[in-house]
Amino acid sequence: MKVHRPADQRGRTTLGARTRLCTFSSGDFHDPEWLGFGALRQLNEEHLPPGATVPAQRVANMELLTLVLEGTLVREGVALEPGALAWTGAGHASDTPMETAGVDGARVLRIAIQPGRVNLPPATDITRAAGAEGWTLLAAPEAGGNGLPIRQQAWLRRARLAPGAHLDLTLDATQRHWLQILRGGVTVDGHALAAGDALGVYDAGIHAELVATAAGAEALLITLPG
């Protein structure tokens, strides 16, 4: 089964000076047909103007990931630039770090994944993806992998494609997969996807190619338990 989530059908909410485009129900946006995708509970594209602050909040039993797409996000004194991924494993309860957008503002992707176990000790980490083309592992289950050690059988991979480039995409039918286009556009398995569009796949395997448009592309692939 494949589900298509066009960019222009996402919900739009505001939190002070921040604007969020919500793939699934989140905050003031509620759509009973889009409550999540398996263990993936939240996927928000957030736009922060220069100097905007994000206060700390108390969260429990959720794997929270923030991927910086544009600009700079300062998190506990550490400047996160495009490509950086910050992880907060909110186990039995923890406060998320306060954040501030840099002088040019920031555009980030907020991801929330239910953990495989509850009431684990809180944990945090940061990774900075290399700029090479092809797939780059950003996060993987705590048992192995070179990405952030999130506490779920979930993998996050980012792809960069040059204009017109082809990249293999193999999806296992026993897992769920969410492909989010971050920049540019691609065609895959008969679907044309532009920035902000997404394709979810479950109960079906795919072996295809991502083919970038003339503008090139960046995509995020989230693989989850079936």
Automatic annotation (TrEMBL):
InterPro entries: Pirin, Quercetinase_C, RmlC-like_jellyroll, RmlC_Cupin_sf. Residues 137-223 form the Quercetin 2,3-dioxygenase C-terminal cupin domain. PANTHER family: QUERCETIN 2,3-DIOXYGENASE (PTHR43212:SF3). This is Quercetin 2,3-dioxygenase C-terminal cupin domain-containing protein. It comes from Luteimonas flava.
